[in-house]
Amino acid sequence: NLINNKSIVYLGALEPRKNILFLLKVFKMIIQQDSSYTLTIIGDGPDKNKLVEFVSNNNLNVNFLGRLTHAEALLELPKHKIYLHTSIKESFSYSLLEAKLSGLITCAYVMLQVPSDFIDVAMTSFKENEWCDAILNINEIPEKFNGLNYTAEKMALKTLELTQ
Is the distance from CB of 77 to CB of 102 less than 8 angstroms? Predict the structure, then answer.
């Protein structure tokens, strides 16, 4: 089962804070330069109709899978290579963590309040061309992510340390 190195996936709510319209604009720019990229969107939310309309109006090949169970999402993620996370604001992103645990290369905004090792390709702005160029230039495999640092027990202990 060969993974397409140009397969992009997003997992999460389809709502304004997640900035999915921006993600679609970046994808449009990517496929104008390399049409072999694919995009799968896992999730549902209030922006879905607007996003489907944008995809249709721009003739983009985007696979909307809708809401999946946690188990289904964990089976879907490893089928892709790149996890694109365009949120403007995030405190702790389980979807970024799941993507890392699934071996994906993660791209996200550098100023999110998430552990830095959740992000392989850190974007410094929300300029479509910056994201596009960074994604088109991904060619390395990220170092093995140590998910053991993020077990429920370790996370609870870290939280307790903060309160002392």
Answer: yes
